[in-house]
Amino acid sequence: MLDELLATSGVVEHCALRSPAVGFLAIHGGLEAITFEIARAAAMRCGASLYAVVQPDDLQWHVPSHRYVVSQAPKLQAFCEHVDIAISLHGYGGVRGSDHRWTTALLGGARRDVASDLAAVLQEALGEHYHFVSELHSIPTAYRGVHPSNPVNCTRGGGVQIELPPRIRGSSPMWEGADRNEAGFVPHTEQLVAALAAFGCAAIAGAKCR
C-alpha cells in the first residue's frame, strides 16, 4: 500500500540525508497534524536526517506503520540505510480512559534504552505540563511501535516512536487564538522541538567523538 500512497496525487515525500547518527521520521504527515512540522524543525536545528510522507488536507489514508514496506520507497530505504538511530513522530488522541489523556506522550520503538533516555530529556523540558511514558508494559499494544517492519526499527540501530497528543502538537482547542511563533508553533510545541533538537545534537556530537 505504501507505493500506492506515494503515487497518489498531492502526496509529498521528503528526504534529507544529513548526519547519519540520528534521523527524524514523520510518515503520517498531514494526517497526524503537525508531526511533519515538528520533525522537520527538529532535524534542521540539529543537522539530523529527515524522512517524511505528507498527505494533502483532502486525503485521510492511514497506512499502518508496520505496512510501510521499506523496499517500496527508495528514499525511505536510503534513509534507513543511512541513519543509525531514528526518532519517529506520530499523533494520537491520548490514552482513552486515563485522567491524563491529553497530557500523556508515549515512547515506543525497539530501542528501549534510547526511549528511556529521550523520555528523561523530554520530561525535564516539559514535565510541568506532560507525562512521557517509556515503560513498554505501560504503553497500549497499538502504540508500542515494536514491529520489525516499522520503519523506525529498520535503521541500523533501531529507534524510538513517539505518540504525541493534540495538546503538545498545538492542535488542541485550548490553543485557539493563542500566539504562535514564526514556525507556527505554540509554546509547548516549541519546547518539544527544542528538546528533540537538543537530543539530536547530543547524539550527533557523541557519534563524532567515537
Description:
- It is a single chain.
- With 210 residues, this protein is an alpha/beta fold.
- 32% of the residues lie in helices and 21% in strands.
- It has 6 helices and 7 strands; from the N terminus they run αββαβαββαββαα.
- The chain has helices at 2-6, 35-46, 74-82, 112-126, 166-169, 187-209; strands at 12-16, 19-29, 48-54, 85-91, 104-108, 131-133, 159-164.
- The protein has a 7-stranded mixed β-sheet with strand order 1-3-2-4-7-5-6, with helices on both faces.
- β5 (104-108), α4 (112-126) and β6 form a beta-alpha-beta unit.
- The longest helix has 23 residues, at 187-209.
Task: Present the secondary structure layout.
Elements (H helix, E strand, L loop, with lengths): L1 H5 L5 E5 L2 E11 L5 H12 L1 E7 L19 H9 L2 E7 L12 E5 L3 H15 L4 E3 L25 E6 L1 H4 L17 H23 L1
Parallel strand pairs: 2-3, 2-4, 4-7, 5-6
Antiparallel strand pairs: 1-3, 5-7
Helix pairs in contact: 2-6, 4-6
User: What's the end-to-end separation, in Å?
Assistant: 39 Å
For the report, how would you describe the main beta sheet? Answer: 7 strands, mixed
The whole-angstrom Rg is: 16 Å
How are strands sequenced across the largest beta sheet?
1-3-2-4-7-5-6
Quickly count the helices: 6
Order of helices and strands: HEEHEHEEHEEHH
- Helix fraction, binned, reads 25-40%
β content, as a range? 15-25%
| Overall average pLDDT | 96
Structural class: alpha/beta
